[in-house]
Write a structure and sequence with these properties.
The chain is α/β, with parallel strands linked by helices and about 325 residues long. It has helices at about 15-30, 45-50, 55-60, 65-75, 130-140, 155-160, 175-180, 210-220, 225-240, 285-319, and strands spanning about 5-10, 40, 80-85, 95-100, 110, 125-130, 145-150, 170, 185-190, 205-210, 250-255, 260-265, 275-280. The strands form 3 sheets. A 5-stranded mixed beta sheet has the order 2-1-3-10-4, sandwiched between helices. The protein has a 5-stranded mixed beta sheet with strand order 7-6-8-5-9.
Amino acid sequence: MQQSIKIGTRGSPLALAQANDVKARLLKAHDGLSEEQIEIVVIKTSGDRILDKHLMTAGGKGLFTKEIEEALLDGSIDCAVHSSKDMPTELPEGLCLTVFLPREDPRDVFISEKFSHFLDLPKGAILGTASLRRRAQALHLRPDLKVVTFRGNVQTRLRKLGEGEADATFLALAGLNRMDMQSAATEKLSLEEFLPAPAQGAVTVEIRENDDRMRDMLAPLHCSKTELEVIAERAYLAALDGSCRTPIAAHATVDGDHILMKAQLLSLDGSKIFERNAETDATLEAANALGNKVGLDIKAEAGQAFFEKLNKEVQEAIA
């Protein structure tokens, strides 16, 4: 009889849907594995507890992984399922991302109970989002909008919208698809106007680096195409020292034996936008190098003064 597997995850409906998807894929990949041998362990993270502050003031995107990674390191769980876009670019020593599931649709969606399209919002309408990227992209197209902070999981943000705290919000289509909530989307936004967050739509599984058993068990779940795309996008993020503090967007696509990538850096009010389109060979080394080069090129073009001004504006916006 095979050993049991403990899968660590956050407790939101989306996180549980992702963890259960990994469980189902493991059962399908291994005939001798029974459902009783796979346990989903819910771990409440700091990011789930702190809802009255912006992520930046609370400590950054690592708040959604810290407690889960601690459980992984102390052996309480065998693997952890994450949304790739929640993962810091640097992982704790001894841990690695070993598997990327096939990527879901990476686009954002516009959601409103009053208006059918983002561009239909009246002048001065209130947009709710905690994402600095979405804020900047929205204001780039509609500088007249008022943006308020929306924190919480998908259900919480939809509830806030229903209670009238804002006229509209944005969510990731991938999350709605995974929870079979596609009908909540009012409008699917184009990748041309709303480039997604790096690694949006990609689920990853984290393990201990020396755990060959879990590496082998998870190997059949891996999608190399998704890995190439995410590696390029995360390298871009790392080159810009990217975090939840910076309006950064990127999307890479594997096309045959090439990777095509588009990347953006925006000012908080959307008035400035730096963009690059690039491509390279579809290898892990080339993908990493591409993302790094694009990030460094954009960083150099924007200049130190831009980042100093951006940091000041972000501090003021979330104070």
